[in-house]
TrEMBL record, chain A:
This is ABC transporter ATP-binding protein. Belongs to the ABC transporter superfamily. It is found in: Cell inner membrane. It is a peripheral membrane protein. One of its GO terms (molecular function) is ATP hydrolysis activity. GO terms for cellular component: plasma membrane. It holds the Pfam family oligo_HPY. The keyword Ubl conjugation does not apply. It comes from Azorhizobium oxalatiphilum. One of its GO terms (biological process) is transmembrane transport. It comes from the Bacteria.
UniProtKB/TrEMBL annotation, chain B:
Its main location: membrane. PROSITE patterns: ABC_TRANSPORTER_1, ABC_TRANSPORTER_2. This is ABC transporter ATP-binding protein. It is found in: Cell inner membrane. It comes from Azorhizobium oxalatiphilum.
Length: 337, 329
């Protein structure tokens, strides 16, 4: 088997937060607490899950935007978590990012041309200023913005247009992996379709791999190869998209899919409402982290933490229901739609 | 009289390359207890429309004209002081970009409390207690701890919920929500949409909801207004709009939405796009604003701008070729 482009092994990121008002003992946010996955060249892996479950933290760890607490981030066989400055510099070119909030990630005083020229120059991807201009123009074409707009400042664009600038900037470095953190959520339907098609085209042409973090499950289903579902700092399910969307095996994934609003006024669907306390990552529940809200929780869930186990179709899930006889497991029935 | 009546709203920006006619003569109204969704291509003027209603557009380079009547009063004619009393109190807004609209150096508790102290005269302790209550309502775990945190310590979706908590704190009569749930997962989104419905029922609030998520539109809106290039091109009750879109842009929009279940109905290929680009708003547009991208455009379209016309009961569209329901004799 060929080596995956990206390997993440038992990644942990705990943020230290101040103790109580009078000092007190420090506590931690267990934002990411032992996550492992791989992304192949040319593959899209989507990361989905509740707000605050640690998706962006995983993304930022992959980008090496901070020191991780423990675990490994391996790009193309090379450890990145303890890499030297030199290796990091090339790594920074090979792995790019598009964030969810395009405004705060663009320098408000830089013209679009300079925003796009910066990575081209930094990574020495053009020999002359004319070549820089040529590349900048190509990037504008690629993301569907008029070339004349390179003279403008970020605030003179709409939210969606700014996101296209961010995507162009990421592409400028000619990366192999792009972390897309809610990269298309702010876009309108038709631009979203264009950008998704664009990302897929680029993936095919350049063998680009994507770590695609998104709340838009219909888009995820459309464009991803595999999906990883996170809950409170851990992966609860990882599977190829058909497996996951047709027959989700984890109760959280089922609840998530059932909550997607359908573009059909008056459509009636059975929604799985999650009751119970939303736990905090500072104090994650013992046993299965989902047991406080899980409609299927039983005694074992409160004491023992379930492990990711494989089922046919490369379908991984972490739930004690996996150990029940098939006839008793409510998760093996396909989703009613 | 509707709670909000916007008439011939125009917002133009002076830019180095000419005047950007971001919003160019838009009229609409929202009744008490009603939700109007505004949808449309990125850059078509949705945010500018909503911000200009609250006079949050810097003038210059912006210039606002028209009327924005809220409960009968034209907001564009009020003094700055009168406007401040309304903003965040009678009318509140959830902004599209939570990170840039939260203050990075104030705790989230302070930011929620600020509005309450300003408009409802609560003291610091009461404001903090209320802030905790609001964070609980928007589903943020461990709210007592979170009120003491700064925006950068929160995840994207939590920041957005803080914005929502601020906007809902004073029980506004009109809530303008610009992409309120884009950064939220669908379970939390469902919860926030419930909170908005609850606001409607409790205080009869009207809601203007701007979103690209047509699933959300289908779920919560009563009426939908479709904008394109700074104009209103279609408006109809929600069911009517989804089942009988009459403007080619709206038809393209509905066609481009991916639906859940695509992986089962055969290998998905490409999403439908609307080919072409939005016309530049700094140049005068001859004919229909959509003509450059419209599959059925003719010379008529390229020459004359279609007027907004009633095509069916409560259903208007601006297209020369939009089907018109036969009027019963
Ligand atoms: N700098 C920080 N200091 C302390 N806690 C942090 C920091 N950054 C993130 N966290 C916490 O880590 C957890 C995970 O945050 P993260 O941003 O990864 O979530 P997410 O899954 O991306 O959520 P969303 O979908 O809302 O963007 C949250 O509880 C968040 O409050
Ligand atoms: N301060 C400004 N100066 C000049 N032009 C501006 C300014 N603010 C907005 N515009 C222009 O006004 C137009 C409408 O922008 P607006 O933000 O309302 O779009 P939108 O419909 O909200 O788009 P999106 O869905 O991407 O948020 C755009 O062409 C934008 O470039
Ligand atoms: S292990 Fe138990 S609590 Fe956790 S998801 Fe499975 S059934 Fe629910
Ligand atoms: Mg995030
Ligand atoms: Mg906007």
């Amino acid at each position: 088997m060929t080596r995956p482009l990206l390997e993440v092994n038992d990644l942990k990121k705990h943020y230290r937060i101040a103790g109580g008002l009078f000092g007190g003992k420090p506590s931690y946010v267990y934002a990411v607490d032992g996550v492992s996955f791989e992304v192949a060249r040319g593959e899209t892996l989507s990361l989905v899950g509740e707000s605050g479950c640690g998706k962006s933290t995983v993304g930022r760890a992959v980008l090496r935007l901070f020191d991780i607490t423990s675990g490994q981030v391996v790009l193309d066989g090379q450890r990145m978590d303890d890499a030297s400055k030199d290796t990091l510099q090339t790594f920074r070119r090979r792995v790019q990012v598009v964030f969810q909030d395009p405004f705060s990630s663009l320098n408000p005083r830089m013209k679009v041309r300079d925003i796009l020229a910066e990575p081209i120059r930094n990574f020495g991807l053009a020999r002359s200023s004319a070549e820089v201009d040529e590349r900048v123009n190509k990037l504008m074409d690629l993301v569907g913005l008029p070339r004349e707009a390179v003279k403008r400042l970020p605030h003179q664009f709409s939210g969606g247009q700014r996101q296209r600038i961010c995507i162009a900037r990421a592409l400028a470095a000619e990366p192999e992996l792009i972390v897309c953190d809610e990269a298309v959520s702010a876009l309108d339907v038709s631009v979203k379709a264009q950008i998704v098609n664009l990302l897929q085209d680029l993936q095919r042409e350049l063998g680009l791999a994507l770590l695609f973090i998104s709340h838009d499950l219909a888009i995820v289903e459309h464009m991803t190869h595999r999906v990883a579902v996170m809950y409170l700092g851990k992966l609860v399910e990882v599977a190829p998209k058909r497996e996951l969307f047709a027959a989700p095996r984890h109760p959280y994934t089922r609840a998530l899919l059932s909550a997607v609003p359908l573009p059909e006024p008056g459509a009636q669907r059975e929604r799985i409402i999650l009751k119970g306390d939303v736990p905090s990552p500072v104090n994650p529940p013992k046993g299965c982290r989902f047991h406080t809200r899980c409609p299927h929780a039983f005694e074992r869930c409160r004491v023992e933490e379930p492990e990711l186990k494989i089922a046919p179709g490369d379908h991984w899930s972490a739930c004690h229901l996996n150990d029940l006889p098939l006839a008793e497991n409510p998760m093996v029935t396909p989703l009613a739609s | 009289m509707a709670l909000l009546e916007v008439e011939n709203l125009q917002v133009h920006f002076r830019t180095p390359v000419g005047v950007n006619r971001a919003v160019d003569g838009v009229s609409f109204h929202v009744e008490e207890g009603e939700t109007l969704a505004i949808v449309g291509e990125s850059g078509c003027g949705k945010s500018v429309t909503s911000m200009s209603m609250l006079r949050l557009i810097p003038e210059p380079p912006g210039k606002i004209a028209g009327q924005v009547r809220f409960a009968g009063r034209d907001l564009l004619k009020l003094s700055d002081k009168e406007m401040r009393a309304i903003r965040g109190n009678d009318i509140s807004m959830i902004f599209q970009e939570p990170m840039t609209s939260l203050n990075p150096v104030l705790t989230v508790g302070r930011q929620i409390g600020e509005t309450l102290r300003l408009h409802q005269g609560l003291d610091a302790a009461a404001a903090e207690a209320k802030a905790v209550e609001m964070l609980t309502l928007v589903g943020i775990p461990a709210p007592e701890r979170r009120v003491k945190e700064y925006p950068h310590q929160l995840s994207g979706g939590m920041r957005q919920r803080v914005m929502i908590a601020i906007a809902l704190a004073c029980n506004p009569k009109l809530l303008i929500a610009d992409e309120p749930t884009t950064a939220l997962d669908v379970t939390i989104q469902a919860q926030i949409l419930d909170l908005m419905r609850d606001l409607k029922h409790r205080v009869g609030a009207a809601i203007v909801l701007i979103t690209h998520d047509l699933g959300v539109v289908a779920e919560v809106a009563e009426r939908v207004m479709v904008m394109y290039a700074g104009r209103k091109v279609e408006e109809a009750p929600v069911r009517e709009l989804f089942s009988n879109p009459r403007h080619p842009y709206t038809q393209g929009l509905l066609g481009a939405v991916p639906k859940l279940g695509s992986s089962l109905s055969g290998e998905s290929t490409r999403l439908a796009e609307i080919p072409g680009q939005v016309p530049s708003l700094t140049k005068p547009i001859q004919g229909c604003v959509f003509a450059g991208r419209c599959a059925i455009a003719t010379d008529v379209c390229r020459t004359w701008a279609p007027a907004l016309e009633m095509k069916a009961p409560r259903h208007v569209a601006a297209c020369h070729y939009a089907l018109k329901e036969a009027v019963a004799a």
